[in-house]
Here is the input.
Amino acid sequence: MKLPNHPADFEAGDGTPLKSNAPRSGARTDAIDDSPVLAGTTDQTALVVKELTKRFGERTAFSDVSFQVAYGEVFGFLGPNGAGKTTTVRTLGTLIAATSGAATVAGIPLNAENGADIRKRISIMPESPGLYWRLTVTENLEYFAGLYGLRQAGPRIQDALEAVNLVDRADDLCGALSKGLRQRVALARTLLSEPTILFLDEPTSGLDPVAALEVHHLIDELRRRGVTIFLTTHRLEEAEKLCDRVAILNTTLRTVGRPQDLRAQLFASALVVKTLAPLHDPDQLFSSIPAVQGWHSDAPGSYELSVSDPRVAAPEVTRGLVSAGADVLSIGEAQHSLEEVYLELIDEDVEASRR
Here is the structure.
């Protein structure tokens, strides 16, 4: 099988991949400690990062970053362009060395001596698929299996093709595939080594909604298989849908936690009330309800009420509205998106401000 000169933007690890001995639980890791970093590694910790910093000359890519990721977790890594997300992935993947700090990857201390052992237990899928377009899907996987040192890779290739639902396209040239299908081939390539930790760098970048949804389904399937996934993405709705926890990076780490917990930390509890017609005297009405601490209106017939406990306040507000003769359309707890959390924490364009 003759190969082209080189694939575009491909970053390959070395070493013979080993079968992971990490826990293989398909359940979401809802009981994960939300603290940014553990005191040390445990048998439930896939990644431990402590005060990790990377500088390129006078420019700081990321600084004093600390967090932990549990086995079987889908961990979202968010931030603007230039925030240091991809550099963090490259550092944890042993492609570049950290300037300072420490990390443990799949139970192995991150240093130059352990680079080969770490690469045996991880896979990295960069934003660009990096495939040989003049080779078929199977030929690509055979070639990369050879780079991993896999002998008799046929069963591994078949399993990877089945995992990404590409068995019927195995003999198609990669150059003839859509971008969405090429992303699936790239994902199949990362599965050949049966990684303990899978780093996905913007896996849905440039994909249409249907192709992106297919990638989401594949990530969900990998979660069920117990693969630990480190996901960098600009799509906040994607992170909210897929991730057990997220970290928000803007050179320094701004926060780590479950999306619902971050919303609770950043935003006060509130009820949203909608009425058929504007209230005659909303200030008098809402001031008379003990559970309401304040209110504002952004549109006629729409009111947001600050409350300490929505479950206590909602019945009182409902009774007050009915007594006032209001035609109530809806009363519900205010829901803040991960995008709102992100915008609260990210207030500058890092890439544009750097010199």
Summary: Residues 271 and 333 are 4 Å apart (CA to CA).
